[in-house]
Write a structure and sequence with these properties.
globular; Rossmann fold; alpha/beta; 7-stranded parallel beta sheet
Length: about 260
């Protein structure tokens, strides 16, 4: 299927590894000019080289996308080198594990809000004007299942408290900008087979073989599929949302989690 986005400029936050890299690679394969934005230069360089080896066009930018000034700089660099980014895939990373009684530092909640929600405010301000001028844009945020169903195993009280604010922000922006041909959606991955997940299952749950992990996924994590998702399974959904064909899918929180969400709605 031709997704009809060839030639468009895409900015992928966290595009050097995991789900973000798969999104960047797939967008490049669709003919997009892709900016891979992340913190670590060596991973950025590796991602760009991989995309270019497949015949794609990619630009690497090192930036901290939780910092307002860095977000503005990164967007300006994309604009200068490739053109205005009309496709933006965002994500944020902030981890303070623990139950409520274990969170001694109240500022952790504020820092989490800054990382998850204010970062999106800064990024939206940097890219929406040109999307509005073009009367076309796609903004997809890679969020978390905790925004809808708070998670207690492992304990993520801080994220449970702050993740929903990001979804609320993006839904509001989706409503305001839909008239300009701009869509804004949130993807909520479940348990995905990244290096971080593999490390957690091994170090914290003691799961080292496939059978043990399958049983744990069903009985403890509550994933009916009984397996980790593949990064490509998340990325393919995101890339579809970035396409011309997804223009009427807007303002949604979409779980891609093997059935982890228990709510039917």
């Amino acid at each position: 299927m031709d997704l009809e986005i060839a030639g468009k400029v895409s900015l992928v936050v966290g595009g050097s590894k995991g789900i973000g890299f798969e999104v960047a690679r797939m967008l490049a394969n669709e003919g997009c000019r892709v900016a891979v934005v992340a913190r670590t230069a060596k991973y950025i360089d590796r991602a760009v080289a991989s995309i270019e080896a497949e015949g794609g066009t990619a630009l690497g930018i090192a930036a901290d996308m939780t910092d307002g000034e860095d977000i503005g700089r990164a967007a300006a660099e994309v604009r200068s080198s490739l053109g205005p980014p009309l496709i933006v895939v965002s994500q944020a990373d902030f981890h303070v594990r623990g139950y409520f009684a274990e969170i001694a530092r109240a500022e952790d909640y504020v820092d989490s809000y800054r990382a998850y929600t204010l970062s999106q405010v800064h990024l939206l301000r940097a890219v929406l004007p040109e999307m509005q001028e073009a009367r076309w844009g796609r903004f997809v945020h890679i969020g978390s299942a905790t925004a809808k169903e708070p998670q207690s195993s492992p304990p993520h009280t801080v994220a449970n408290a702050t993740r929903p604010s990001t979804v609320g922000l993006l839904k509001s922006v989706a409503d305001e900008y839909a008239r300009f041909g701009i869509t804004v959606n949130t993807i909520a991955p479940g348990w995905i087979g990244t290096r971080t997940t593999a490390w957690y299952l091994t170090e914290h749950e003691g799961l080292v073989d496939d059978d043990a992990r399958r049983e744990w996924m069903i009985e403890t994590a509550g994933v009916p599929a009984g397996r980790l998702g593949e990064p490509t399974e998340i990325a393919s959904t995101i890339v579809y949302l970035c396409s011309q064909h997804a223009g009427y899918v807007n303002g949604h929180y979409i779980a891609v989690d093997g059935g982890l969400h228990r709510s039917a709605f």
